[in-house]
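Record type: monomer structure entry
Structure origin: computed from sequence
Chain ID: A
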Amino acid sequence: MGFLALYLCLVIVGGGWGDKDPLPTTFTSVPLPLFFAHRGATLCYPDNSDGAIGDAARFGFPGIELDIQFSADSNFFIYHDPSITPPIGMSLHACSLTVNGLRNQRLSFQGKETNESPPLLADIVEKYNDQFLYYFDMKRYGHKNIFQLARDITAFVNQHSLNDRAIVASAHFWFIIYLEYSQPDILTALEGFSTNHPWLLSLLPRKFKPDFIASRQATITNGFTEWLRKTGMQNRYIVYHANKKTFKPTLEQGVQMFIIDYESYLDEYLSTSDSEGVEFQFSTSHWVSPF
């Protein structure tokens, strides 16, 4: 009875079992399938580098997925691993570096040092402006407090007017529901979503529900894709770790959004542009809100 009473209190605080607000038209009007370039297009440049992001724009990706950390002097930067190895010296915690320290690092590509360094997130969004939809994979390195991380990324999104263009993503359940409840204007994605028990999402009160859910391609089942179809969740589900072998079968199952590594087989779905960046046009079709 105690658990039930607590749950009912959360339902009341969370606004009941209502529908989510419709997604912004920046997402609902993009031609499908929608691709987020996984850490950029990394044929010629290191993951998460300015060069890889530039190639993603050149190849025509409408979206970009980036791994986000927090530096020692309180700046978001783009890098995946917790540690970074300088050309000379021992491995360092990436989040222990300042902006100047990050700029002195050199990223490796295929075992060779490059001129690329971990870019600041602010530099990337200012450089590419509204050329991309963004998927920020929050690594939480550099923050001991998930609630402060939520406040900091909210301030960043608001400062750069990204509320309708950026998804803040994490597998940390409490981080996502806190962000969703306290900052409803921020678009969120819960990663590692259970495709075996998708109905659990319906138990979350409206104000705690993430805007998107995401999971690995290998976890998709026929039952899950049927649930996506019945609930209208295709436009709120993002799959990652699809590849050349699994892409078309996944697309045929009704999945519409992918975080994916660039390979040439995707060219027929991408609208290429010049090296100054992609200029994609929104279609006139709109998705129906699933909630």
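Annotation 1: The chain has one domain: 2-269.
Annotation 2: Residues 2-269 form a domain with the TIM Barrel fold (CATH 3.20.20.190).
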